[in-house]
Amino acid sequence: MQGKVTAGSLDVHPTEKALVVHYEVEASILAEGGGHMLVSVKSLSPSTDVGALAKKVVEECKLIPASRLPQVEQLLYYLQNRKSSPVEGKMEKKEKRPLNEEASITRVDEYIELLYEGIPEKIRGSALILQLARNPDNLEELLHNEAALGALARVLREDWKQSVELATIIIYIFFCFSSFSQFHGVVSHYKIGALCMSVVEHELKRHDVWLSLYLLLNLAEDTRTELKMRNKNIVGLLVKVLERDDEELLVLVVSFLKKLSIFLENKNDMAEVDTVERLARLVPCDHDDLLNLTLRLLLNLSFDSGLRAKMVEVGLLPKLTALLGDENSRQVALRILYHISIDDRFKGMFVYTDCIPQHGEEDTEAELLSICINLAANKRNAQLICEGNGLKMLMKRALKMKDCLLMKMIRNISQHDGATKPVFIDYVGDLAAEIRAEEEEEWVLECLGTLANLTIPDLDWELVLKEYNLVPYLKDRLKPASAEDDLILEVVIMIGTVSMDDACAAMLAKSGIIPALIELLNAQQEDDEFVCQIVYVFYQMVFHQATRDVIIKDTQAPAYLIDLMHDKNAEIRKVCDNTLDIIAEYDEEWGRKIQSEKFRFHNNQWLEMVESRQADESEPYLYDNDNDRTDLFYSAVAQQII
Questions:
Q1: What is the pLDDT of residue 640?
Q2: Average pLDDT for residues 194-223, to the nearest whole number?
Q3: Edge to edge, what strands does the sheet with 34-40 contain?
Q4: How far from chain centre, in Å, is Cα 30?
Q5: How far apart are CA 45 and CA 187, in angstroms?
Q6: Where are the alpha helices (DSSP H) in 323-365?
Q7: Phi and psi dihedrals of 244, rounded to 5?
Q8: Whole-angstrom Cα distance, residue 491 to residue 475?
Q9: What angle do CA 233, 236, 238 make, to 5 degrees?
Q10: Exposure string (b/e) for 374-390, b if CB count within 10 Å is 16 or more?
């Protein structure tokens, strides 16, 4: 038997875009007294005509009399302007996580079984039940499933401290029941209210902890107070909190660590604990402020070579590279990547990232170019950059724009022996044409440095020097203080490169460049790099008769080389010895002088060693030895050396 149905109260659904129509049955065999009906209005948006929609709802829902039209319109207006509740907002955010299953009321028993597994399975099972609970039509059936409700209550009671996400999902399920007065009994039966009070109390305590952290952060403005905090291991305590999942708490903690990290002692403390490892899991993250703060903290830490190594070890390199596509994170990520690219140990690892731009892209900014300059110092990276028309496009853009940074990158590429160096032959003329006094020194430095790297046997350097009239420029720039030291040094290196060619060596000998090198050597004798490069030029020149004759007869180069034979710099000594050996082979007089100096130096070293040993021996032994004939000992030593 069916009874008369009359409309009861109207209300909005607590979470859905829907109206809840309650109704009463005057006579019913089941004697349940009534129920409710859900009227979905998912199409409701800020631009919806609420009046028209209200009329449509009244026309289509037979339970709502026409006299209720103003009330329906008012409720729809409320829904249109309602913001998501805190619980709903949290859940919508969590539902964006990869849970692609659609829940079915017929599979509830399967979902209940998941509540007896580990935390991840419990989260999955409860999330599926939540899908069902959000539809009021399912609440009646769930109400009679004591196994489901009992399991949910048990999990909430036992595991709410272990997982905030799990607790939030289960509370939301019971929240759906609590939205309807007829279901309040089941919520009370399972003591969900008391559990919620415990959760709230716990969260309030955590909020108190947050206030303590904010207090400490404010107090840390005073460096003396900050020192006291450091003595109490504030860094270690904060790093432990990085294990938490609460994003707002993490924002506070990372802010605090970033402030502390500007001081060396705090940075060292961070290096001793797992700071980088725990920060790595936050890159990337959906919380923009947290991601930005994390990257800035990592930037501060990246000035430390050990912490840079740790960043690579925990897999941050590809993560940072991926962030280059995010405008909000790009600049900070670039700076961290730049610091990592400085370290030779990690240059090769960039091969496996998308950090290296292809073919001289027009919009490549200075920060990214700076990274590529570092990376180009690695042979494999250089080959990758040059693939296809890579070098051609780079050179074209660099020469067109006179881009010093881009040419610096090309210069680093040119230093590698192997497949890349011969490719530069096509650009020797373009580079040589830029070596002019009227060009900016910084630009000339990079072009000249690139040319100086091209130690290619098939390259006709004599033709290049003549066609572009480079010898006068090179000679003029050898004068001390004629230009910045970097450019003068590059001129010396360039002379060394072309001096490997016999015809070029003869041309340089006639130009008077050798006396200019001697003058520069005298002026820069305190600079090891200058001295080493000039000596290397002499070493190249003594292989060719024209320049060797000038060095031996017309200058005092051998005398300088003899003085440098005992230099503290091992590389300088080595090049000097090799150069003097060749001079001694071709000139008898200098050969005797060189041999004499070598003997004198070694003899003095031996005598100093013997005297040192004698000083270490006991005095009675020295004085009681009447047969001691050190003069004979020295003579014997001298004969051995000779």
A1: 37
A2: 72
A3: 5-12, 18-25, 34-40
A4: 68
A5: 33
A6: 330-342, 344-347
A7: -70, 160
A8: 9
A9: 105
A10: bbbbbbebbbbbbeeeb
Q: What's CA 327's distance to the chain center, in Å? A: 15
d(CA 537, CA 552): 14
Structural domain boundaries in the chain? 5-81, 107-190, 460-609
| Cβ-Cβ contacts under 8 Å for 408 (sequence gap 6 or more) | 373, 446
CA distance 94 to 84: 14
Task: Give the Cα separation of 588 and 9 in Å (integer).
Answer: 121
Residue 523: how many other CB atoms lie within 10 Å: 15
Q: State the Cα–Cα distance between residues 134 and 176, nearest whole angstrom.
A: 6
Token pair 């990690």 is found at 346
CA 260 – CA 217 distance, rounded (Å): 9
- The three-state DSSP-derived secondary structure of 269-296 is HHHHCCHHHHHHCCCCCCCHHHHHHHHH
Beta strands in 382-482 (DSSP E): none
- Say which residues have a Cβ less than 8 Å from residue 473's Cβ, sequence separation at least 6: 435, 436, 437
Cα separation, 65 vs 311, in Å, equals: 67
Burial (Cβ within 10 Å: 0-12, 13-18, ≥19) of residue 506: middle
3-state DSSP helix/strand/coil percent for the chain, to nearest 5?
A: 70, 5, 25
Which range, of 1-10, 63-72, 182-191, averages the lowest pLDDT?
1-10
The amino acid that residue 127 corresponds to is A
Return the number of other C-beta atoms located less than 10 Å from residue 234's C-beta: 20
What angle separates helix 119-133 from helix 164-178, to the nearest 10 degrees? 20
Per-residue pLDDT, 354: 76
Mean pLDDT, the chain, whole residue set: 83
CA angle 570, 573, 578 (to 5 degrees): 130
DSSP β-bridge partners for residue 34: 24
Q: In this predicted structure, what is the pLDDT of residue 35?
A: 60
Torsion of CA 7, 10, 13, 16, to 10 degrees: 80
DSSP structure string for 198-219: HHHHHHHHHHHHHHHHHHHHHH
pLDDT at 331: 94
Can you tell me the mean pLDDT for 34-43? 72
Q: Is the pTM here over 0.70, yes or no?
A: no
> What is the per-residue pLDDT for 605?
64
Neighbours of 294 (CB within 10 A): 26
219, two tokens: 């107090």
Distance (Å, rounded) from C-alpha 642 to C-alpha 640? 5
**379 Cβ neighbours under 8 A, 6+ residues apart:** 416, 418, 420
Amino acid identity of 33? G
Q: Is 633 exposed, middle or buried (0-12, 13-18, 19+ CB in 10 A)?
A: exposed
7 has a pLDDT exceeding 70: no
What pLDDT, on a 0 to 100 scale, did the predictor assign at position 611?
63
pLDDT digits (tens, 9 = 90+) for 577-629: 898 999 888 888 888 888 888 888 766 666 666 666 666 654 444 444 444 43
193 vs 466 pLDDT, higher one: 466
Which single residue is written with the structure tokens 């650009």? 427
Q: Is the peptide bond before 284 cis (omega within 30 degrees of 0)?
A: yes
Q: Which CATH number fits domain 460-609: 3.10.129.10, 3.40.50.150, 3.40.50.300, 1.25.10.10?
A: 1.25.10.10
36 pairs with which residues across the strands? 22
DSSP H/E element including 23: strand 18-25
Q: Look up residue 69 and give its amino acid.
A: L
